[in-house]
Design goal:
Length: 1955
């Protein structure tokens, strides 16, 4: 018992290791209970047992082992550390559990293995189980097979790798134990269930009887694809999806199951399951001799031996070059067709067995096989087809394109036919990505030639190839190439397209035929989509795919571009003059047609003006474009002598081309005369506008070609020069996509040779524009020109060398994002197209055998001679064709030459060869490109550098992706040469970030990359670590982590740690494909040109004195501060004052320096002086917004780093290039720090004159200064801080507010410098932080400072805490936002810091908070240690200050970014004022005050609540003096007497003094001091009580409402901060006072009308929030406060301007629908307000601005999609808006359609559609009612007469209707009824007859009355229309007719009373 008592006292983890089994059993039991109790998977308790879990499962005692297995299973299931124990625990289970006799133990062991798989350790488990299969104990092997089967059955083939399992199946079938064999059969059946027939090839060699048994079992399996039944932890979303599908299985039907089964079934390739066979060593030793033998029998014997070996489905990689060379020779030259057939089969076998590894040899075989298709025997042709198809699958279409296109013009029709059929079969394996436009274009051109071939089989093959291409990329991509093909052939192509069945996909049926190709981004999804609902799925796709670029669904993208496509491709027959005149006469005025050919020029001018006006107003769909433009040629036509008439003709052409469906036929009718006038002095401008209109309609490429050819067909040099000038601008506006470069180059050469200098100058200008898009290759075409001309061209090229092409602003690029991406891609490929046009030389005949033998000679001097000859051949040819014979083989050998000089010469030749051959060099990548890597193994730096230069030259021509395909790169990285690895990894680090995607073969490099991380060479390890983020950028962390799991445990931990570290620095993928050519466009925005610069700088210089004046009041130090913050503010104010004076002083001195001492300032040359003139910053339109958008969408790197990496610097450099002067860019990014100081000095000099441009580039400027914060040079840092101080002062003077993007990119790095050891640096940083509050809200600076307190630098912590304390003292608790408790607790933690400065700063910050909120601070800071609390209490006592709430007011620095309108439109947050008083007041002052100098008014009278503490005491009104806080709490709060006498309207005070006085009182309302606020409210209330003083309030209503809302927010924060009952009562009293004052204001109709929509919206929002606030709701009865709020809301709806009120409510409803933060109760309250306004509409309809309301409803419906509105939560909102629309229609009638003027594209608006539906339903209902009335004849005739009086004018015109007495009768009656005058005896008789119920029932609503009147009006109109022949007798039997003037007078009298 003593022993028992000893181990029972031990902790649980020690019990588990005890020697006594009972102790271990007890420990396992306790551990199990503990594991089940712990809820946090990251609890530290798990770590105690990490090393014990293996002992749990391997316990020697069977009883203890069972309990240990249970505990281990619980641990694995719940602990986050469990994955680290997988290998050892599963090994223990296999060895020590699976051999146990107890079934329970085996079951628990299996569960443990499966649980490890569930926590993502499948590979480790599988590895241990496969090891267990080799165990001699059959029980263990049997259990391992069972677990493997269960794992595959539950987790599926995606989780468990099947290849190793399939590999061991034959071995298991041969086991001695029958149980193992039987379980192996079950395992084979389970594997077959997942991969089907892919299992057959690996099992083809097993026992036939066993195979037959398996076949029978396989046949019994269900045909449906299996599904995963158990999921990994990372697959929980997939699990939820499957469970949802199972619940909906009954509703989904078979289609849904089928679709999901396709998704669930993984595509397993049998090839991957096979073992590779090595065949090269098995070849006969005399194979090469026999295959060269003269006897065909010997050659056949050798080929048959090879054919037998190639039948192996998977071959080991090796050097097959000699074998392929021999086969190539047999296919190409052997005359025995039987041998050719066998050789083709061998090629097919090799290609199929090697797959991608065979791509190296594809380039040699494809041209030979294509040429051999001239054989006519079907057997040979079939073998060749199989061979070339297998070869194609090993390579890409890009690699075989050159060879295929070369034989498309072959003389033999069989070759042409088979080449087309080969393309058709190849296209089936392509996707839109692998068949881009650059490939599609040459193929389509070649195939279209064969469409017209004389041989029918060639035509059919071409049709099939074109149809297949159309199926793959879609009609939209192919149609541009079919413009000149007749309809019959196009129909044939489409027919072939419909018959095509793509590889790997099902043949689409029905409507899906058109939808599948455009979606081809993921090819497997295309067939699955049509199986869903008929039209819903495709409708949702276009918007999602539109962002991806090309593969946008045609349903979504086509309509947007329909018009443009039709205009450019429409084919129109030429019309005869008679038809043109007839069609034009139908749409033009008759007078215009008659006087077009008048002899009087004035008549012709008038006719053309009518013509132009008619064309502008004509419906674009019905415009006969060709007829109209041909009418312009009517005599005198284009020989018109009057320039005014001719100008109008040009305008008509531009208008018709832009508005109508303008065909090329129409364009040809006018282009020649327009081009003739393009050089005219008077008509040239209009002629160019006409050409631009034609280019928009017909496309710039076609129009430009026509214009240039017509211009140079004339002899007028002026026309030629102006045509070229127009073309320069047109290319910039339209872009360069699709332009025929070759035709342009020929015309430019003609222009350059012209004798007229203007033509030559225009041609050179056009070349400079083309250079923007084409780049350096453009110059190659003009190398034959004269030297003088070439120097001019080079000078123009140099000017635009660093510029980027501007974004297209015309043409198709404006319409849709997808097409814009296409056109940009085309422009990017323009350079390649130009290279294709270059004349190339075939040098294959110059590469002689003698030259090749010299290159391979033993003597190095002879080898050098051979290489020199190759260099000479290449230099002479300049541009060469791809065929270079055996030269690549010879050069490859020289790369390993022992003579390093020859190696470098070979590299130079390879680089020269790449440049000369261009993109076609890609076919030599495998054979000649990868051998370049062998040079990188050299120990000499010069040799390796030459190798890298050559590699980069090749990559420029081929692109990077081809180098990443296949295993070659992985094989190079595998070589353990430190130089090779170092250079190769460095090369990849540079190249990979520029790619948007990489081939999957990059995964093969990961094992070797990981081995480099452990390389003995430090440089290799460093490069490997740098490469990790780059690889992770493309492969993802998960894949790399999975690959690391296969490493040894010792290596794995290190690699995983490095992966975690690299994960934080993964660069973002580029937004556009990187282009290596110099012409690549990094951005779509061009810098502003030079001319606008002086326009910008001139007004800025004029405004400098005004800015200086403005800065004085803004920067004046505070005259008086509160007691607790005077000390903290004094230094701040003095520093600000000094900075402002120094700033103004420096600006003056700089101005003097500019004017007086400019010449001797610098000594550079005149050219350098010219370079540094002009503005340094360029203001790009929307440049900053575009950069923010790109960073948010992760198109560029987010500015977030610990230390700046090179890619961040390069990105900033690229962004600044667009908007910073070139010379300044050189200084900014120079390596010399002196240049940085010089650049900052230049920026200081230009700060005054370029404030606007500086603001436009502010984000980039701040980012550049963050880089300087990481410099170690103090001089640069001090200069930078000096500039930043000046910058923020200038920004403050401009009233600029930093954006979130700018602040987050700058402030965190500024805070880093606050911890600098140098005092002078810290002082400047503190000054900048204080200046920051002027341009960025203090509440948003606060979080950055909080982050700074977490630094390890004690100085930084102390400074940040000091700043935090200062913020709390200045701004009160509002700076905390919603995190006061959390923030104060984090600050209080630093009270216990070891550093004295940190402790003091933390204590000061908490004391500041105590001064604001009093004892409440103890609750907020939470628990402190006794020592820390005593320090805090002592510090609070020493501060000797009473708590005060005065500091809680908003600080001066608390500025809201954005305009007043923006703050109106967004929902106000709980801690921010809805609208700044200063903003409203500045707007009012701008509206009311004349533009006079403001110096006449003292600053004290320009009040702002933010600066209220600046006012001297003398002007403050007398306030109540309270002895102490205790007395204030004890006595009730009395409203002070109104002591401040406001001047009356009749007093002698001026209007400006009245305004200042009322401003002061309004500012008191917003005070955080309750007493001051009460005084202000009392004064306001007294003003509102006296009608004579209402005029004082005019122009100040918005300001007062905003001040009241600010007070309501302060009250809400006080209620939350202090829960004492007496304080709550005081707050409630102030609440009631604010609400009552608002009610008094709203009751004054004249003042309520002044409230703006934004302020009304904020007011309604605040009132509704108060109603819904639980603190104001009393369960027993309605709160008095809520009743008061309801009264305010009702009065607001009744008295405020109805237009503003409805606009405000619509904005609120919009936010309620779109914001997730809004509750359903709030939405319901907003809708109730709407309903109230709808009820009041009949009374308000006359005062309603319908155009604005309809625009607001339109914006509501436009901004909130139908999908959101149709949701159940928003259905009522939709009905409310529709009810509002319907009510407006019922009140206004059809005339409401005239009030849609503010809506753009009204035909597309839902508002118009809804109104038209209402109109149709109303008319149908009216017709039904009239029919019923005519049948029943109940209507008395007396009612008809007044209705007839009102209906006559309605049928005529609106102007006459407004003068109708009946109209005034209705309005008068409505007004009387509304205001209780309905029973007046003076009511007209119409009211008595038509609405008898009004007088008897006054409670009837006005809406019902108007509805009944409108219904009667419609009925009477119908009756009048049917009874025109016999009108009814009038209803008024006696008395004169109503007098119009009397009605007008009475109506005006009632309106006056209302006012």
């Amino acid at each position: 018992m003593g022993d028992d008592s000893e181990w029972k006292k031990l902790p649980t983890d020690q019990k588990c290791e005890h020697k006594v089994w009972k102790a271990r059993l007890s420990g396992y039991t306790e551990a199990l209970q503990q594991f089940q109790r712990i809820t946090d998977e990251k609890s530290p308790e798990w770590g105690k047992y990490q090393g014990l879990i293996k002992k749990f499962v391997t316990d020697s005692n069977a009883v203890a082992q069972l309990k240990g297995l249970e505990a281990a299973l619980a641990y694995i299931e719940n602990a986050h550390l469990a994955s680290r124990t997988a290998g050892e625990v599963v090994s223990g289970v296999v060895c020590k559990v699976f051999n146990q006799p107890k079934a329970r133990a085996k079951e628990l062991g299996s569960d443990i293995c499966l649980m490890y798989i569930e926590i993502e350790k499948a590979e480790a488990v599988q590895e241990e189980l496969l090891k267990g299969l080799d165990n001699k104990n059959p029980k263990i092997a049997l259990a391992c097979v069972e677990v493997l089967r269960r794992a595959i059955s539950e987790f599926g083939s995606k989780v468990v790798t099947l290849k190793p399992v399939v590999k061991v199946l034959p071995k298991l079938f041969e086991s001695r134990e029958k149980a193992v064999r039987d379980e192996a059969k079950l395992l084979a059946v389970e594997v077959y269930r997942w991969i089907r027939d892919a299992l057959r090839p690996p099992l083809q060699n097993i026992n036939s009887v066993l195979l037959k048994e398996l076949e029978e079992e396989w046949a019994k399996l269900p045909t449906s694809a299996p599904r995963q039944s158990r999921f990994l932890r990372s697959q929980q979303d997939l699990r939820a999806k499957f469970e949802q599908q199972q619940q909906n299985a009954g509703d989904g039907g078979d289609e849904g199951d089928g679709e999901e089964s396709e998704e669930a079934a993984p595509a397993v390739d049998a090839y991957e399951l096979l073992e590779a066979v090595e065949i090269l060593s098995k070849l006969p030793k005399d194979f090469h001799e026999k295959i060269e033998a003269k006897k065909w029998q010997e050659r056949k014997e050798a080929l048959e031996a090879l054919e037998t070996l190639t039948k192996n489905p998977k071959l080991e990689s090796g050097e097959y070059g000699d074998v392929v060379k021999a086969l190539n020779k047999v296919i190409g030259k052997d005359s025995n067709v039987m041998l050719v057939t066998i050789a083709a089969k061998c090629v097919a076998g090799l290609a199929a067995g090697l797959r991608k590894k065979f791509s190296t040899y594809a380039g040699h075989l494809v041209p030979t096989i294509l040429e051999k298709f001239k054989e006519k025997k079907a057997q040979v042709v079939q073998a060749l087809q199989e061979a070339i198809d297998a070869v194609f699958l090993s390579t890409t279409l890009q690699n075989v394109s050159e060879d295929t296109l070369a034989v498309m013009d072959n003389k033999n029709p069989s070759v042409r036919q088979q080449a087309s059929l080969f393309l058709a079969r190849s296209f089936r394996h392509c996707t839109p990505t692998t068949l881009p436009k650059s490939l599609l274009k040459p193929f389509c051109v070649a195939l279209l030639k064969q469409v017209n071939d004389s041989a029918p089989e060639v035509r059919d093959a071409a049709f099939e190839a074109l149809g297949t291409a159309m199926k793959v990329v879609g009609e939209r991509a192919v149609n541009p190439f079919l413009a000149d093909v007749d309809k019959l052939k196009i129909d044939k192509i489409k027919e072939c397209s419909e018959k095509v069945e793509l590889a790997g996909g099902k043949k689409p049926a029905g409507p899906a035929k058109e939808k599948a190709p455009p979606k081809a981004e993921p090819p497997a999804e295309a067939p699955a989509k049509p199986s869903g609902p008929p039209k819903k799925a495709p409708a949702a796709k276009p918007s999602a795919l539109g962002k991806k670029g090309k593969p946008a669904a045609p349903k979504g993208a086509a309509p947007a571009k329909a018009k443009k496509t039709e205009n450019k491709d429409v084919a129109e027959a030429e019309l005869s003059p008679e038809v043109c005149e007839e069609r034009a006469g139908a749409v033009l005025p008759a007078s215009c047609m008659q006087t077009l050919d008048s002899a009087n020029w004035k008549e012709r001018l008038a006719a053309m003006e009518e013509f132009h006006k008619a064309a502008e107003q004509m419906d674009s769909k019905e415009m006969p474009c060709q007829a109209l433009v041909r009418m312009l040629a009517k005599k005198p036509g284009w020989k018109e002598t009057n320039f005014q008439v001719m100008q109008l003709k040009m305008q008509v052409i531009a208008t018709v081309a832009q508005r109508g469906t303008f065909s090329r036929t129409s364009a040809l009718a006018v282009l020649e005369p327009v081009v003739e006038k393009v050089g005219d002095v008077k008509c040239g401008v209009k002629a160019k506008e006409a050409l631009t209109g034609v280019a928009e309609a017909c496309g710039l490429p076609w129009t430009a070609e026509q214009v240039v050819s017509l211009a140079f067909g004339q002899k007028n040099p002026k026309n030629q020069a102006e045509a070229l000038n127009w073309l320069c601008n047109a290319i910039k506006e339209f872009g360069f996509a699709g332009v025929n470069v070759k035709a342009f180059i020929n015309n430019v050469k003609t222009a350059l040779a012209a004798t007229n200098p203007a033509v030559r100058t225009s041609a050179i200008s056009l070349l400079s524009v083309m250079f923007l898009y084409v780049g350096a290759p453009l110059r190659m075409f003009f190398e034959g020109e004269k030297a003088a001309l070439l120097s001019q061209i080079d000078a123009e090229f140099e000017k635009v060398k660093c510029q980027t092409p501007p974004a297209p602003i015309r043409g198709g690029s404006k319409a849709s994002g997808g097409e814009e991406a296409d056109e940009q891609e085309e422009e990017a490929e323009a350079g390649d197209d130009v290279v294709d046009l270059l004349p190339r030389t075939d040098i294959s005949d110059k590469i002689t055998s003698e030259m090749l033998s010299k290159i391979g000679d033993k003597n190095w001097k002879i080898r050098k001679e051979g290489l020199d000859e190759v260099t000479a051949v290449l230099s002479e040819a300049k541009f060469i064709k791809p065929g270079v014979g055996e030269l690549p083989t010879a050069l490859k050998a020289r790369l390993t030459d022992s003579n390093k000089i020859l190696v470098q010469q070979t590299l130079s030749i390879l680089q020269q060869m790449a440049t000369a051959m261009g993109p076609a060099i890609k076919q030599y990548i495998k054979s000649l490109g990868f051998p370049i890597f062998t040079v990188l193994t050299d120990s000499k730096n010069t040799v390796r550098a030459a190798g890298l230069t050559t590699l980069n030259g090749w990559v420029e021509q081929t692109g990077m992706k081809l180098w990443l395909e296949g295993e070659e790169l992985a094989e190079e990285m595998k070589k353990e040469n430190p130089f090779l690895r170092q250079e190769l990894l460095g090369w990849l680090v540079v190249k990979l970030p520029a790619l948007r995607s990489v081939p999957s073969d990059l995964l093969l490099c990961l094992p070797h990359l990981y081995s480099c991380l452990e390389d003995r060479n430090a440089d290799v390890r460093k490069k490997a670590q740098e490469a990790l983020p780059v690889f992770m950028m493309h492969l993802g962390y998960d894949k790399m982590n999975k690959a690391a799991a296969k490493l040894k445990p010792t290596s794995k931990d290190q690699v995983v740690g490095l992966l975690e570290k690299a994960r934080a620095s993964v660069p973002a993928k580029p937004s556009a494909p990187a282009k290596e050519a110099p012409s690549a466009a990094a951005s779509s925005t061009k810098p502003a040109s030079a001319p606008p610069a002086p326009v910008k700088t001139a007004p800025v210089s004029e405004q400098v004195p005004a800015e200086t004046k403005k800065s004085k009041p803004a920067s004046a130090p505070k005259a008086k501060t509160s007691a607790h913050d005077s000390s903290s503010n004094s230094s701040l104010n003095s520093s600000l004052e000094k900075e402002n004076t120094s700033f103004s002083g420096k600006s003056k001195s700089r101005t003097k320096a500019k004017t007086g001492k400019q010449a001797p300032a610098k000594k550079p040359s005149a050219k350098a002086e010219d370079d540094r003139t002009g503005p340094i910053f360029t203001l790009l339109p929307n440049g900053k917004e575009q950069r923010i958008k790109e960073e948010k969408s992760l198109k560029v790197l987010k500015w977030n780093f610990i230390t700046p990496r090179e890619e961040y610097v390069e990105q900033l450099k690229a962004q600044m290039t667009l908007c910073v002067a070139k010379w300044l860019m050189e200084d900014l990014f120079h390596t010399d720090f002196q240049k940085h100081i010089k650049a900052i000095g230049s920026m200081m000099e230009h700060l005054d004159a370029e404030v606007e441009a500086t603001v436009g580039c502010l984000d980039l400027i701040l980012k550049w200064f963050t880089l300087r914060f990481f410099d170690t040079n103090t001089s640069v840092l001090m200069k930078a801080l000096e500039y930043l101080k000046l910058l923020f002062i200038a920004l403050s003077n401009q009233d600029y507010h930093l954006t979130e993007h700018e602040a987050s990119s700058f402030i965190p790095y500024l805070i880093l410098k606050v911890g600098e050891p140098k005092d002078v640096v810290r002082k400047d940083v503190r000054s900048i932080i204080s200046l920051l509050r002027r341009v960025y809200p203090a509440s948003r600076v606060f979080p950055f400072l909080m982050d700074g307190t977490k630094s390890k630098n004690s100085k930084q912590r102390a400074e940040c805490l000091e700043e935090l304390g200062c913020l709390v003292g200045l701004c009160g608790m509002s700076v905390f936002q919603q995190t006061a408790t959390k923030a104060l607790r984090e600050i209080a933690v630093h009270i216990g810091d070891r550093d004295t400065a940190v402790r003091n700063a933390a204590l000061n910050a908490v004391v500041m908070a105590y001064n604001v909120c009093g004892e409440q601070v103890y609750k907020l800071i939470g628990q402190l240690s006794e020592k820390d609390m005593s320090m805090l209490e002592e510090r609070i006592k020493r501060s000797a200050k009473k708590p005060s709430t005065a500091a809680a007011s908003k600080p001066p620095e608390e500025k809201v970014a954005g305009s007043a309108n923006a703050s109106m439109l967004r929902k106000p947050s709980s801690n921010e004022a809805p609208l700044k008083l200063s903003e409203i007041r500045s707007q009012k002052a701008a509206e009311q005050q004349p533009p006079q100098p403001s110096s006449t008014v003292p600053r004290e009278f320009q009040l702002d609540p933010n600066f209220i503490v600046d006012l001297p005491e003398t002007i403050m009104p007398d306030l109540l003096v309270v002895e102490s806080v205790e007395t204030a709490e004890a006595t009730p709060l009395d409203v002070p007497e109104f002591k401040f006498r406001l001047p009356s309207i009749s007093s002698s005070c001026s209007a400006r003094e009245d305004s200042s006085s009322i401003n002061l009182v309004i500012s008191q309302v917003a005070s955080s001091d309750a007493k001051i606020s009460v005084q202000g409210l009392a004064k306001i209330g007294k003003v509102l009580q006296e009608e004579s003083k209402w005029s004082l309030f005019l122009g100040h209503v918005d300001e007062f409402i905003v001040a009241a809302l600010m007070q309501l927010r302060l009250l809400a924060s006080k209620r939350l901060a202090d829960e004492r009952t007496e304080r709550q009562q005081q707050v409630d009293k102030l609440y009631s006072l604010v609400i009552n004052t608002l009610n008094s204001l709203v009751m004054v109709g004249k003042l309520a009308q002044e409230a703006s929509p934004g302020v009304l919206k904020d007011l309604v929002y605040a009132l509704l929030s108060l109603i819904l606030d639980p603190q104001h709701q009393d369960s027993s009865k309605e709160s008095p406060l809520i009743r008061s709020i309801n009264v305010v809301l009702l009065a607001l709806c009744k008295n405020a301007d109805p237009t503003n009120t409805l606009s405000a409510l619509l904005m609120l409803l919009q936010e309620a629908c779109t914001s997730t933060a809004c509750s359903s109760e709030f939405s319901e309250m907003v809708m109730k307000c709407h309903w109230r306004m709808i009820r009041l509409l009949p009374e308000k309809i006359e005062a309603l601005y319908l155009d604005k309301i309809l625009l607001d409803i339109h914006n509501f419906m436009k901004l909130i999609p139908k999908e959101i509105l149709k949701q159940k939560s928003n259905a009522m909102a939709q009905r409310t808006v529709k009810t509002l629309l319907h009510t407006l229609y019922r009140l206004v009638g059809p005339k409401i359609m005239d009030h849609l003027s503010l809506i753009e594209n009204r035909s597309e608006s839902e508002v118009e559609a809804h109104l038209r539906r209402a109109m149709n339903s109303a008319s149908s209902q009216t017709s039904k009612d009239s029919e019923n009335i005519s049948k029943s004849k109940i209507q008395p005739p007396a009612v008809a007469d007044p209705v007839r009086i009102s209906s006559k004018p309605a049928s005529s015109s609106s102007s006459s209707e407004s003068l109708n007495p009946a109209h005034y009768e209705e309005r008068l009656r409505a007004l009387r009824q509304l205001y209780g005058l309905g029973n007046n005896s003076q009511s007209v008789s119409v009211e008595k007859s038509s609405v008898p119920a009004v007088s008897s029932k006054p409670a009837v609503s006005t809406m019902d009355m108007l509805q009944s009147q409108l219904a009667q009006l419609r009925e009477s109109r119908e009756q009048q229309g049917s009874q025109n022949t016999r009108p009814r007798s009038p209803a008024r039997a006696a008395g004169p007719p109503p007098d119009l003037n009397e009605f007008k007078a009475r109506l005006e009298m009632i309106k006056a009373n209302l006012r």
